[in-house]
Amino acid sequence: MFNANSDTLVNYQLVENERQLDRFFQDTRGAEWIGFDTEFVGEKRFKTLICLIQVTCAAGNYLLDPLRLPHLDPFLDLVVDPDILKITHAGENDYRLLYQQYDVLPTNTFDTQIAAGMMGYHYPSGLAKIVSGELNINLGKGFAVTDWEARPFSQRQLDYALEDVVILEPLWRKFTQKLTDSNRLDWALEECKRLESADYYYQDPYHEALTSNLITSLKPKEQIFLLRLFKWRRDEAERLDVSKNMVLQAKLIGQIVKAIRGGRQALQENRRLPDFISRKYAELWTNMYEDPAIAEEREILKRLPAPINEDARDEVLLELLYLLMKYRCLDEEVSHALVMPRNAIRRMKNDPEVLDSILGSGWRRQLLGKEYVDWLVHYENLGLSIEGGSIAIKMPLS
Predict the structure, then answer these.
(1) Which of 25, 97, 176, 300 could link 74 by a cystine bridge, Cβ 3.0 to 4.6 Å?
(2) What is the pLDDT of residues 246-268, one digit of tens each?
């Protein structure tokens, strides 16, 4: 049926005021399932702005305008209700925003991107590709980067927003049947359960510094300064509600760290640093560099990864184990990127807790098998032989 206000094939209600929000609450109360998506703007600000929330359920389709509504309580109640199934695609992004800004965690989740990764699709795959493959429907993506903050919405914007959400229910039903037939529904639900944990959304404030390509090549004093510089940049961005690059471009950080040992003069004479930047912050950064390290900072540096073992045999074995994991995934039509990232095997080799968290139990262990897990547990004692056209991984008898 056509909407009376447009040429769209989807009926919907735009929710912009308290009265319409109460109607939304009445309509969705007791729903068995909802599908939802969000449109947001993150450019040039620290705190991402949620501009539109699209909700579909058996009662109808709703477009909630967070910029005009006094609150979102009826929607947030749906998200946390364990009796209501939440269907999303790449819902991690939406749930992270809701957790950060409203302190709510979802329950009873099903994510079609995760489900697709267990049914032969690359992970992560876009919604349009999956919908085309599963439902033979082509979605338009012309408004993916439109200005969602602008008001009023155009009808084409709303049509685009609706298109991405109304397709979730039939896609969920299709994947649920396929996962059930392949005995993988429990796998998908187990993986979706991770979206319901606060730990999943934890953001280490020092992650950016500790994973920098620069930090391992620095001396301890410069490492401490780099920690402080990244933290200052983040704190300033949050205070001003601007992007971190608007405070200090990432490409300048290496130049600042290299020059800091020479003090204010070296910063101001570095031709690769804009004059206004060095004049404004040279004294501040010099003080940050000269201040003695505190115990907390020294503890943070202990979290830096150990230097990579450059033993060629070790590298070959790590690569072989990774390729065997990929081959197993190809054989089972599960996306290897959903199983573990490339660096996970090295991390598991060095840290038994990481191994237990990834392969200690659950669907990943079931997929890869006990023998593969045993190889990782006994990695230091593994042998590798190539004989008679065969490659063998040898594990000593216990």
Answers:
(1) 25
(2) 999 999 999 999 999 999 999 99
